[in-house]
Task: structure prediction
Amino acid sequence: MDRTCDWDGEIRLDGGTLEAVEPCFLVGPLDEQRRDRIVETSDRHLRLQSFTARRDLYEDSSQKAIVLRIRGGPETRLTVSLRLPDKVSLSRTLGQLAESGEMLFTGPFPRESAMLHRLVFHENYHTAFRWTDEDDGQAVNWYYVRVVQANGQMAWSSPIWVERRPT
Result:
């Protein structure tokens, strides 16, 4: 099923503050009218325009996201309202999103949908570590970083090649 779908919507906060917005968009298509963009933002809302393109409905995975850093409590309410592809909305408190994620459907299957992921608390969002390579430096070594999140999801880096520095 081929379909390119335009999205226009906003996210509003009641009882909290939107401290940061981190768009995670892939590039494409080469059409400025369909470029992913945050149109406006304030400490209580943001408006975005985007698009999705489906080629193989059952094998494509979403490659777009917006990460929000929110200051609020369990009663802080997050509302997502779409103008496109259809006029729909979804509202949840941070307390509800701490328990589980939620889907926003734009119509019956196989129409487009969006996911409000389960809340990630501040102490689980950032980490730091230090590691010292104990190798003698005579051979070329490679390393990679593998991360396991508090929710069990994983990410890993490409190999990092380390060679002896010429003296």
Q: What stands out?
A: The mean pLDDT is 84. The helical segments are 94-99. The radius of gyration is 20 Å.
